[in-house]
């Protein structure tokens, strides 16, 4: 009979499987910095992207800033992203009719600023775009962060490890070790944990870049679900009711999950209140902005009502296959998603000790709003809360 350790219990409350520093398995350097254990570091083909955790790092709370969405600058014909001269080499394929495109023949690293603006528009329109045969990672972490800055002010994660000197990169490093698999399945039947990234922040990410550097052959796919179509599936009366509601999102459980495994806390945990139905300023449509990893409570409802309604919405987004796609990774794949529109989940479906190493670039977007009149409004109500209030 398996017993959940304290760390596993913390994982379950949070319902998501980040990679953390693991006390007793990883290493503490003479400089006090926490690193992946040397045996696994040696197996990495991408040492520039290895994470480390510096327990002395402390970042100030994130504050409001105006978001300039690059999609608003884009030429809707996308001539810089898909130049006519390259038409024969470029293949664009829909993954599902409404969600996701897969593209070969466009080299992201070579895009002009106008091309990047068009990329943002395409990602908003398709929700998820999978780019094959990219040379992006070869340019290293500095290039990746500078590239990401075009799309917004980069987010620094409260607990995750980052390559030295590149705090804004978010690294996933699943060790080539059976313990990595056991950690997930010892007291669980599934690795699926749908979420939108860091929805607890005042300004959660917009266009999010993810690139798998090393991974299993045919596995470790990423699942995506479209919360825009999810909202459109609901009846008008129910849509109207949901549009009156707000949700508390919290980073406390994720922080606790890091702490119990011996990891770090770079910024104080936060809670923020966001509208349950979010207005997407580029698409001028509404999405369901609620997720099973970070949403905690519907402000306007009593707890049993809130629990019941949240479960219904999680089930809709997490388990409705005709809202979803499965992105497969190949060497050189870069996937970009609109974190305001889609939810995603990692999948841990390999059992052999195989390394999976990825990096994420996470530009912050606008503060979520239910009505366009609040767009970039610093005084938008309801106000945010901090945990100590
Ligand atoms: O590992 C994956 O496939 C996704 C990880 C994830 O959720 C993230 O980095 O935001
Ligand atoms: Fe994520």
From TrEMBL:
All copies of the TauD/TfdA-like domain together span 92-361
Which Gene Ontology cellular component annotation is one that this UniProt entry carries? cytoplasm
**Domain of life where this protein originates:** Eukaryota
Output one GO BP term: sulfur compound catabolic process
Task: Give a Pfam family name.
Answer: TauD
Q: Which InterPro entries is this protein grouped with?
A: AtsK-like, TauD-like_sf, TauD/TfdA-like
Give the required cofactors. Answer: Fe(2+)
What GO molecular-function term can you cite, just one? Answer: sulfonate dioxygenase activity
Which keywords describe this protein according to UniProt?
Answer: Dioxygenase, Iron, Metal-binding, Oxidoreductase
Q: Which SUPFAM superfamilies match?
A: Clavaminate synthase-like
Similarity section: Belongs to the TfdA dioxygenase family.
Protein name in UniProt: LADA_0H01772g1_1
Q: What broad taxonomic lineage does this protein's source fall under?
A: Eukaryota, Fungi, Dikarya, Ascomycota, Saccharomycotina
